[in-house]
Amino acid sequence: MSRQIERIEKMEAYLDEIRKATDDLDKALEAYEGTRKKYTQLENYYTGPRWMKDFEDYEAGKLPKDLKCGVLSEDAVYDLLTDRKDLTVRMNRLVHLYLED
Q1: Which of 38, 53, 70, 77 could form a disulfide with 46 if both were Cys (CB 3.0 to 4.6 A apart)?
Q2: Which CA distances in Å does 66 have to 20, 63, 71, 84?
Q3: Cβ atoms within 10 A of the Cβ of 42, count?
Q4: Number of H helices, E strands in the chain
């Protein structure tokens, strides 16, 4: 009987952990989906002429020194674009794995 209780307790812990992870993922995906249009705008800005103009003006000291402008770093947006692509590939793999189960 102790093995039965251990098994039930173990499965109950799995249920709790998976329920929390599922709920957390649902919330995260909802937030992530909500950024889609902003992502497109950011990508268009970064790959267009306005980013270069803003970058050059910042480098020339034409913008306030205290302006938060990580978007003008050469790596921040590029890294985000790359991370988003990698995450999309990862989600795609997970979808296939879960559909196969």
Answers
A1: 77
A2: 41, 9, 14, 28
A3: 16
A4: 4, 0
What's the CA gap between 55 and 69, in Å, rounded?
9
R_g of the chain computed on alpha carbons: 22
Domain residue spans in the chain? 2-100
Q: Which residues of the chain have pLDDT under 50?
A: none
- Three-class SS state of 40: helix
Residue 1 is predicted with a pLDDT of: 82
pLDDT digits (tens, 9 = 90+) for 54-69: 999 999 999 999 999 9
